[in-house]
Automatic annotation (TrEMBL):
<comment type="function">
    <text>Catalyzes two steps in the biosynthesis of coenzyme A. In the first step cysteine is conjugated to 4'-phosphopantothenate to form 4-phosphopantothenoylcysteine, in the latter compound is decarboxylated to form 4'-phosphopantotheine.</text>
</comment>
<dbReference type="GO" id="GO:0004632">
    <property type="term" value="F:phosphopantothenate--cysteine ligase activity"/>
</dbReference>
<keyword id="KW-0456">Lyase</keyword>
<feature type="binding site">
    <location>
        <begin position="130"/>
        <end position="133"/>
    </location>
    <ligand>
        <name>CTP</name>
    </ligand>
</feature>
<keyword id="KW-0436">Ligase</keyword>
<feature type="domain" description="DNA/pantothenate metabolism flavoprotein C-terminal">
    <location>
        <begin position="6"/>
        <end position="231"/>
    </location>
</feature>
<keyword id="KW-0511">Multifunctional enzyme</keyword>
<feature type="binding site">
    <location>
        <position position="154"/>
    </location>
    <ligand>
        <name>CTP</name>
    </ligand>
</feature>
<keyword id="KW-0460">Magnesium</keyword>
<feature type="binding site">
    <location>
        <position position="172"/>
    </location>
    <ligand>
        <name>CTP</name>
    </ligand>
</feature>
<keyword id="KW-0479">Metal-binding</keyword>
<comment type="pathway">
    <text>Cofactor biosynthesis; coenzyme A biosynthesis; CoA from (R)-pantothenate: step 3/5.</text>
</comment>
<comment type="similarity">
    <text>In the N-terminal section; belongs to the HFCD (homo-oligomeric flavin containing Cys decarboxylase) superfamily.</text>
</comment>
<dbReference type="GO" id="GO:0071513">
    <property type="term" value="C:phosphopantothenoylcysteine decarboxylase complex"/>
</dbReference>
<keyword id="KW-0210">Decarboxylase</keyword>
<feature type="binding site">
    <location>
        <position position="113"/>
    </location>
    <ligand>
        <name>CTP</name>
    </ligand>
</feature>
<feature type="binding site">
    <location>
        <position position="176"/>
    </location>
    <ligand>
        <name>CTP</name>
    </ligand>
</feature>
């Protein structure tokens, strides 16, 4: 079994990209399609896990044909995603944060459609969003019942991990306090919306940071590698 054994495990996976409302018809968003997260959900399900997919703005076409046994919670904004993740956390043996989360949101969303006013352009004021992943790691350390929970983050970067991005990925692994960090090269035409991707899994072994081999291929293929690594964490 290429994806390891997750039978009896409960896995929560966030996928897609958040949208931050400006008004009832406009939002600030990102290019995440949700394909990676869906591939992870399928791989976890194939490995025997009960899966909850927290889906941020994923095209319905991508969601049709999901195996029964994957439950879906749709969310739109970062704050909605955060609350869905914290609700799901109490149930989860492992959490994978694959969603692309907006770091900032408009300071206020207007209730009616914004009007064009004058020729002076428009200045938007943004406020910082919470780091959901960080919050989940903090919550785990507060609750003894969550002590064995596995938490996985993603790091989408441009440039491969062998260059300066490696130091960045190491720093991010430590800063986030996760068990696994999936480094994901999103330069050029890789990743967003595409089927081919490259990942490297960063973990730690007795206090040493270990950067895994490069996995190239389809999002389904690399997802099996990520799920196998999650499965390994349970047996450590
Ligand atoms: O710091 P950076 O955004 O690169 O971290 C990426 C990881 O953190 C991803 O797993 C992403 O889902 C998560 N994240 C989050 N909340 C944010 C920003 C990122 O959970 N506000």
């Amino acid at each position: 079994d290429p994806s390891g054994d997750l039978s009896g495990r409960r896995i929560v996976i966030s996928a897609g990209g958040t949208r931050e409302a400006l008004d009832p018809v406009r939002f600030l968003g990102n290019r995440s399609s949700g394909k990676q997260g869906i591939a992870l959900a399928k791989a976890a399900h194939a490995a025997g896990a009960a899966v909850e997919l927290v889906a941020a703005n994923i095209d319905t076409g991508l969601l049709t044909g999901l195996p029964a046994g994957i439950t879906m919670t749709p969310v739109e904004s970062t704050l909605e995603l955060q609350s869905a993740m914290h609700s799901a956390q109490v149930w989860a043996d492992a959490i994978i944060m694959a969603a692309a989360v907006a770091d900032y949101r408009p300071a206020e969303a207007t209730e009616s459609k914004m009007k064009k006013s004058g020729d002076d352009g428009l200045t938007l004021r943004l406020v910082q969003n919470p780091d959901i992943l960080r919050g989940l790691v903090d919550e785990r350390s507060r609750q003894t019942s969550l002590r064995h929970q596995i938490i996985v983050g993603f790091a989408a970067e441009t440039g491969d991990v062998a260059t300066a991005a490696l130091d960045y990925a190491r720093a991010k692994f430590e800063r986030k306090g996760v068990d696994l960090l999936v480094f994901n090269d999103v330069s050029g035409d890789r990743a967003f919306g595409h089927d081919e991707t490259m990942v490297q899994i960063i973990s730690s072994d007795r206090g040493e940071i270990v950067v895994g081999e490069e996995f190239h291929g389809s999002k389904d293929h690399v997802s099996q590698k990520v799920i196998a690594a999650v499965s390994d964490q349970f047996t450590h």
